[in-house]
Amino acid sequence: MTETVLDRISRLDMALLKASSATIALEIWCEENGLGAPPVRLRVQVEQKDEAPLPVIAAGIFKANEPLRYRHVTMFCGDLAVAHAGNWYSPERLTPEMTRKLDTTTVPFGRVVGPFSISRETLENIRLWNENTLPPPSASVIRNTAIVKRADCTPVSVVEETFTGVLLNF
Questions:
Q1: Which of 38, 23, 32, 36 is nearest to 3 (CA)?
Q2: Cα(67)–Cα(111) distance, rounded to whole angstroms?
Q3: Do you know which InterPro entries this protein is assigned to (predicted)?
Q4: What pLDDT, in 10s, does the model give residues 93-142?
Q5: Dist CA 86 CA 90 (whole Å)
Q6: DSSP β-bridge partners for residue 46
Q7: Three-state secondary structure along the chain?
Q8: What is the pLDDT of residue 51?
């Protein structure tokens, strides 16, 4: 039986929701579906954007006076822009080396904080593409807002990720 586009979106959505790291989930997805040559390693392009307000749904996760940093990235598998992500993180809850990497490199957030044995708590999951036709590669198909936590359950970040149609075009 042929997989429909809506089935494919559901499969991608479940892979993202089950994962402790969107970076790792996307690398596996891209490799398993032939979107990149194995082993797939995502790269990010850090975009200089004005700091965005923390999503309302994430209010109260950080202390009112706690300094937050904002990092906006586009995630790539090869030349394919597979996701756009806004990331609000607390440098006080990371190691100095992790903060330095986030401030000065293009290493994906999930890789930087991986030593914390992170987990995710999804706050919001929205399917943005509900047609049974392939979306344009740049179309937004799924948006997730999540809290990224250390193994001790301390939140370190709030992420808002939008995944693109190119992930379905195989």
A1: 32
A2: 22
A3: Chorismate_lyase_/UTRA_dom_sf
A4: 999 999 999 999 989 999 999 999 999 999 999 999 999 999 999 999 99
A5: 14
A6: 73
A7: CCCCHHHHHHHHHHHHHHCCCHHHHHHHHHHHCCCCCCCCCCEEEEECCCCCCCCHHHCCCCCCCCCCEEEEEEEEECCEEEEEEEEEECHHHCCHHHHHHHHHCCCCHHHHCHHHCCEEEEEEEEECCCCCCCCCCCCEEEEEEEEEECCCCCEEEEEEEEEEHHHHCC
A8: 74
Q: What are the tokens at 77?
A: 């598998």
Residues of the chain with pLDDT under 50: none
Domain boundaries, the chain: 5-168
Task: Name the residue with tokens 């995630």.
Answer: 75
- Both tokens of residue 150? 């250390």
Residue corresponding to tokens 């991608």: 12
Quote the CATH superfamily of domain 5-168: Chorismate lyase-like (3.40.1410.10)
138 close to 1: Cβ distance less than 8 angstroms: no
Task: Please give the backbone phi and psi of residue 17, each rounded to the nearest 5 degrees, phi first.
Answer: -70, -30
Cβ proximity of 160 and 34 under 8 Å: no
